[in-house]
Specification:
98 residues, alpha+beta, 3 helices, globular
Length: 98
């Protein structure tokens, strides 16, 4: 058995979006953006915000990765790894629908 993290199972064709009751909002008291969910608040860092702003249900994961790689002039493979890990983590917490 390996202790290495398993690759995220996020499909490149998935169209991620925030489920009903979950919102990304700017909150001065929290010092930036937060994800608001019923009875829960999660502070989103700058990278998560850039990803979440693109999770409208219109773009696929592959399109989001391409857009971020272009916007930030970063290697697509690195962006893809970061995006899929974040999306899978949020989906596991029921904060994102894939």
């Amino acid at each position: 058995m390996s202790d290495a993290p398993q690759p995220a199972s996020v499909s490149p064709d998935a169209r991620p979006h925030l489920p009903r009751g979950v919102r990304l909002v700017h909150n001065e008291a929290q010092g930036g953006y937060v994800l608001l969910a019923p009875e829960r608040v999660f502070k989103a860092d700058a990278i998560a915000v850039e990803i979440l702003k693109r999770c409208t249900g219109e773009a696929t994961v592959a399109q989001i990765v391409d857009d971020l790689a272009r916007t930030f002039e970063a290697p697509r493979e690195r962006i893809e790894t970061d995006v899929t890990q974040l999306l899978q983590g949020l989906a596991d917490k029921k904060l994102l629908a894939l």
